[in-house]
Structure formats: structure tokens, C-alpha cells
Specification:
Blueprint (H helix, E strand, L loop, with lengths): L25 H7 L9 E7 L5 E8 L5 H7 L2 H7 L19 E5 L5 E4 L3 E2 L7 E2 L8 E6 L6 E6 L5 E6 L9 E4 L4 E5 L6 E8 L2 H9 L4 E9 L8 H5 L6 E9 L5 H8 L10 E2 L2 E2 L5 E5 L2 H16 L10 E4 L3 E3 L7 H5 L6
Parallel strand pairs: 17-18
Antiparallel strand pairs: 1-2, 3-4, 3-11, 5-6, 6-10, 7-8, 8-9, 9-10, 12-14, 12-17, 13-14, 13-19, 15-16
Helix pairs in contact: 6-7
């Protein structure tokens, strides 16, 4: 357990400026947040296995987004709390009284943070946990903003402000992680859904959809846009490189007939994952190789598949495919759906 010499004792340290924090306009919030810079740094974390447990330590890229990108992915309240270090009002968070079994993960990058088994009622009005999903997944910084020394807790991968940790919790750790509901997502414990969804970018989405529409176990496919910072982009705008979006295929697959592993193994056969923003003659960031996962377990599988391909030297160059938590997805125009079926094959741009 890390040293916590600077943590203040007492419940008073957990109650922070209730009257001073109110939801205000998005532009006002963004003005207070720090612009995210692309650093190329990596962090060591533990991802979640298909049985809801922490896996082995893996090294993954830090998630870096501009405020423009965060504003697209997050609500105003999530941005205020997570990116501008705000605090939601006590007893108002959606997870304060949540008693369901499951895992709480970062609303910004999908990293598992806490388990329901480690949650307790602290009486403070915020979700409280006596230990994290994995120590590696949390970062800590000294916070002296209120004239006292507290320990701020952040998502180690994307830097999302989560809350604070205090030494007045229950046994066995004696800790109380006081966390804002706004920056958490929750996945209930139980059997995996019969149909799972994943967004895949592998170049021209016409051909990728055609390939997956025929893959055994896939129930439906749809082309669209994801990963950028503009709402409701058109095909022309995405191709103009001003939206940040990738052309993706929304793949829904039957988990009784196939698996995430098989879907992703096939994904790496239908494109060149060693060229980030190019597939054959198609060049541009909209053609980037990317996997947008919708469930935490999918990320673990994706990185395992990539690691296996790397060890087996399936490609002559390193795999550069990005693995990212799915943000807003926008369906593409009807003329792009099942394009090959409608046009007899071939890319007619």
C-alpha cells in the first residue's frame, strides 16, 4: 500500500465546497480545464478478464485527447468534474445508492476502477470504496486547493479526476475512496450479453462491412463514424480531415456462435494493421486502424490478440492499431450502408 502521510483524517476532509459547485455552461467549464497534450507515454495497468477479475499487469498508451474531443465524449457535468476537477453535489450522484453487483470503470477511457464488493455506505453522499480494482489503475496527487492537504485520485490512463482518498475507511485497508458518480460507468455482474457490439476501423468502411457481414456469428453490420470531435458529420466532412472521425463498422455478434477473440482475429486479416492512416490507395486519418471497445472485457481480448500476433511475427512491421473506449457513434448516410451489395462491389469514389 502506498504511503499516505499527507492524507487528512476525518470526514470533514471529504466534504468539499457543496454550495460553490454548480453545473454551468460548457464553454465556461472548458475554459478552466487543461488542454490535453499528446505525449506518447505509456502506463502499466490491469485490465478486466471475461470473468470480471483483474488480469496481469500490461503496458498501454496513455489516453490523450484535446478538450474539444473530451467535450464530444462527455456530458457537461462529466467534463466539469472529470476534466476541471469539480465535485458533484452530495447525495445526488447516480451511483451513491447503487447496490447492484458489478464493476465501476472510468467514463473517459473504460479502465476498470472499483468493484461493487469493495463499496460501502460512508454516509458522506458520495460512492465510497475501501480499495480499488487494482492499485496500478489509480494515480494520486497532493491537492491543497482548499487550504488543506488532501490526496486527489485520478484515472492513471486518461487523467480523469475521480475524487479523493482518506484514511478513515473500514477494514481491511482503513481507506475511503470518495468518488464522484459522474466520472464512473457501471457494468452489472452476470453472464455476458448474447449479442455484443464493437466498432472497427480498418480503412474504407464499404469493404470492411462487406467482409464482416459474411462472418459466421455476426448478426448485423452498419457503417458510421466514431472517434472524432464533431457531431453529426457528413461523409464529405469526414473525408475532409476536419472532424477527427474514423470510418468504422458497427459489428453486432452472437456470443453463442462466435467470440470477441474470433471477431478480432478476423479483423486483423481484412486489413493491414501496420499502417495507421493508410489502407492501400486510401490515405487519411479516417482510414486509421482502430478498435473501439464497448465493454471492458473486450479491451483485454483485443490486447491479447495483438500481443499474440506480435509474438508470432504475423506481420513484418509492428502493429499500430489503436485500442480505445468507444465514444459517440454516428450512423453513416443510407447510401453508404451495404454499399457493395447496392453497387455490385468495388469502391466508386
Amino acid at each position: 500500500m502506498r504511503k499516505r502521510a499527507q492524507i487528512m483524517v476525518g470526514l470533514a476532509g471529504g466534504i468539499v465546497l457543496l454550495a460553490g459547485w454548480w453545473v454551468y455552461g460548457q464553454f465556461g467549464v472548458m475554459a478552466q480545464a487543461k488542454e490535453t497534450k499528446v505525449s506518447g507515454e505509456t502506463v502499466k495497468v490491469r485490465l478486466m478478464t471475461d470473468v470480471g477479475k483483474a488480469g496481469s499487469v500490461v503496458e498501454v498508451p496513455k489516453v490523450s485527447r484535446s478538450d474539444k474531443e473530451w467535450a464530444m465524449r462527455l456530458t457537461v457535468e462529466q467534463f466539469r468534474v472529470g476534466r476541471a476537477a469539480g465535485t458533484e453535489r452530495a447525495f445526488c450522484g447516480v451511483f451513491n445508492d447503487n447496490h447492484k453487483k458489478g464493476v465501476y470503470f472510468c467514463a473517459g477511457c473504460g479502465l476498470p476502477l472499483f468493484l461493487s464488493a469493495d463499496k460501502f455506505d460512508s454516509g458522506t453522499g458520495w460512492p465510497s470504496f475501501f480499495q480499488p480494482f487494482a492499485e496500478e489503475n489509480l494515480g494520486e496527487e497532493t491537492d491543497s486547493a482548499l487550504g488543506m492537504s488532501r490526496t486527489e485520485v485520478q484515472c492513471v490512463r486518461c487523467g480523469m479526476h475521480l475524487g479523493h482518498v482518506f484514511p478513515d475507511g473500514p477494514k481491511p485497508t482503513g481507506l475511503r475512496y470518495c468518488i464522484n458518480s459522474a466520472v464512473l460507468s457501471f457494468q452489472e455482474e452476470g453472464l455476458a450479453p448474447e449479442v455484443e457490439t464493437i466498432l472497427l476501423g480498418a480503412g474504407c468502411f464499404w469493404g470492411v462491412e462487406e467482409a464482416f457481414a459474411k462472418f459466421p456469428g455476426v448478426k448485423s453490420t452498419e457503417v458510421g463514424y466514431a472517434g472524432g470531435w464533431t457531431k453529426s458529420p457528413t461523409y464529405e466532412e469526414v473525408c475532409g480531415h476536419g472532424t477527427g472521425h474514423a470510418e468504422v463498422v458497427k459489428v453486432e455478434y452472437d456470443t453463442k456462435k462466435t467470440s470477441t477473440e474470433k471477431v478480432l482475429e478476423y479483423f486483423f486479416t481484412v486489413h493491414d494493421p501496420t499502417t495507421m492512416n493508410r489502407q492501400g490507395p486510401d490515405v487519411g486519418d479516417q482510414y486509421r486502424s482502430v478498435i473501439f471497445f464497448t465493454r471492458p472485457e473486450q479491451e483485454e481480448v483485443a490486447r491479447e490478440v495483438m500481443g499474440k500476433l506480435g509474438r508470432e511475427r504475423k506481420f513484418s512491421r509492428p502493429i499500430v492499431t489503436r485500442v480505445d473506449f468507444a465514444g459517440p457513434y454516428m450512423k453513416g448516410e443510407e447510401g453508404h450502408q451495404r454499399y457493395f451489395e447496392k453497387n455490385g462491389g468495388g469502391c466508386r469514389r
